[in-house]
């Protein structure tokens, strides 16, 4: 995390202070901007589709707080709801009526969640859902997919082994091999690999966890029939299907990916949008499964700040502002952006592809959109880094990694979309 010449003394001072406090100068690795070889931004303010850095520069923002800002930043109704809740105190140590209100709103939108439990992060929600799956099935092995990110818990922060359906290896220092070995890592969009995994590990697999739309290898859509194959295979094998909808929940519509693709999982994990930008997570599903969670059952999970009133208030206000009409507008704007980016690249004779599902977008420096992590890895990361830098210099903030989704918000309108496409045309030419 090093400042460039030309940044102000204030920015340099802030960066130096951060480096003296935090590992790498940041509290989450992607914020260091190392994948794009640029100094990190210090963002101070957001409003609608824009953010401002510590030096007062304004950017059209496609990070969107990494997903929750579907309404744009500092949406007045959400801000008012949080302020109102704050006047009544913060963590009160008992169930708050707002927890019930938000829970009911989520269940109305996602009927597969008979019961749910709030947590303080998506990582915590996934960790709890896996514990529940193991308890419900009496099995230990979890299946995930290469390139899928489900938070930084030990069992899922793993990489693929040498074979298609072999036990994983630790993807981070500090993870015991014995824990990593309880996870099988398969290629995304590969039904035969899923079938082989269940054949090779009969009666051992507790659950399959999947991002129904992959958004952490860049945006990769599920192939037709892939999610349906997961649903049927787990059902026959007595395993559970877990949809990680931390990103896609309320992003692809009120019912998330499960509504969009017509596949109902046994358990769902949520985060981001359901908290309106405040810290939050949730997991839920069939009543018989969720009734195993303490105090109703033997699976222990707790959280001092779970169901925090400010997060509940922000989530309620955010979900109340969503409607089918607004989703249609969001989809149309995202489609215009994707089409414009592809046309700009073509005019500049740049070999890129644009992958989009709903308001999730990625420009890959590949001739065709990838269908799995191995294909996404072949994208030209150096070219993306140069593109990122050129766009930033033109006032457009993209995710500082080839493998992160762009988030279009309902605050992005034709003015911002057209300005982004114009900037991309210049960036591709450069």
Task: Kindly describe this structure.
- This protein is of the alpha/beta class and 430 residues long.
- The chain folds into 2 domains: 9-74 and 323-429, Alpha-Beta Complex (Aspartate Aminotransferase, domain 1), CATH 3.90.1150.10; 76-320, Aspartate Aminotransferase, domain 2 (3-Layer(aba) Sandwich), CATH 3.40.640.10.
- It is 37% helix and 15% strand.
- It has 14 helices and 16 strands.
- A 7-stranded mixed β-sheet has the order 4-12-11-10-9-5-8, with helices on both faces.
- Helix 3 runs parallel beside helix 10 (309-320).
- The chain starts with 8 loop residues before the first helix and ends with a helix.
- The model is unreliable at 1-6 and 161-166 (pLDDT under 50).
Gist of the model:
This protein is α/β, with parallel strands linked by helices and 430 residues long. The chain has helices at 9-21, 76-86, 97-109, 122-137, 177-180, 191-200, 226-237, 256-261, 287-290, 309-320, 324-347, 373-376, 381-393, 414-429; strands at 43-47, 50-53, 58-61, 115-119, 141-145, 158-159, 169-170, 183-186, 205-210, 240-244, 267-271, 281-285, 353-357, 360-364, 396-397, 406-407.
């Amino acid at each position: 995390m090093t400042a460039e010449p030309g940044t102000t003394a204030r920015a340099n001072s802030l960066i130096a202070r951060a480096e003296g406090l935090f590992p790498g100068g940041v509290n989450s690795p992607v914020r260091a901007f190392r994948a794009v070889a640029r100094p990190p931004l210090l963002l101070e303010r957001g409003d609608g589709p824009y953010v401002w850095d510590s030096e007062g520069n304004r950017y059209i923002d496609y990070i969107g707080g990494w997903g929750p800002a579907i309404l744009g930043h500092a949406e007045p109704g959400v801000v008012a709801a949080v302020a109102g809740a704050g006047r009544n105190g913060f963590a009160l140590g008992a169930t708050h009526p707002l927890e019930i209100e938000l829970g009911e709103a989520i269940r109305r939108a996602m009927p597969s969640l008979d019961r749910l439990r709030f947590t303080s992060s998506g990582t915590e929600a996934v960790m709890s859902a896996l514990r529940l799956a193991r308890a419900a099935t009496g099995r230990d092995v979890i299946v995930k997919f290469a390139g899928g990110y489900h938070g930084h818990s030990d069992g899922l922060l793993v990489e693929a082994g040498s074979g298609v359906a072999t036990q994983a290896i630790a993807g981070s220092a500090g993870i015991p091999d014995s824990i990593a070995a309880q996870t099988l890592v398969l290629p995304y969009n590969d039904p035969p690999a899923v079938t082989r995994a269940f054949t090779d590990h009969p009666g051992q697999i507790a659950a399959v966890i999947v991002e129904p739309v992959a958004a952490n290898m860049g945006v990769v859509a599920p192939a037709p029939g892939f999610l349906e194959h997961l649903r049927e295979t787990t059902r026959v094998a007595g395993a559970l299907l877990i949809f990680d909808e931390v990103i896609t929940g309320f992003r692809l519509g009120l019912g998330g990916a499960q509504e969009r693709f017509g596949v109902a999982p046994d358990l769902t994990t949520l985060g981001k949008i359901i908290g309106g930008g405040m810290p939050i997570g949730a997991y839920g599903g069939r009543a018989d499964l969720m009734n195993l969670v303490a105090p109703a059952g033997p699976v222990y999970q707790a959280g001092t700040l779970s169901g925090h009133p400010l997060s509940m208030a922000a989530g309620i206000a955010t979900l109340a502002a969503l409607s089918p009409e607004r989703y249609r507008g969001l989809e149309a704007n995202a489609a215009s952006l994707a089409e414009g980016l592809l046309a700009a690249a073509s005019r500049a004779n740049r070999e890129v592809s644009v992958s989009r599902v709903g308001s999730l977008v990625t420009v890959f420096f590949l001739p065709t959109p990838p269908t799995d992590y191995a294909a996404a890895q072949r994208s030209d990361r150096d070219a993306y880094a140069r593109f990122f830098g050129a766009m930033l210099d033109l006032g457009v903030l993209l995710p500082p990694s080839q493998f992160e989704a762009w988030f279009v918000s309902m605050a992005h309108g034709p003015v911002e979309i057209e300005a982004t496409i114009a900037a991309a045309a210049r960036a591709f030419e450069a």
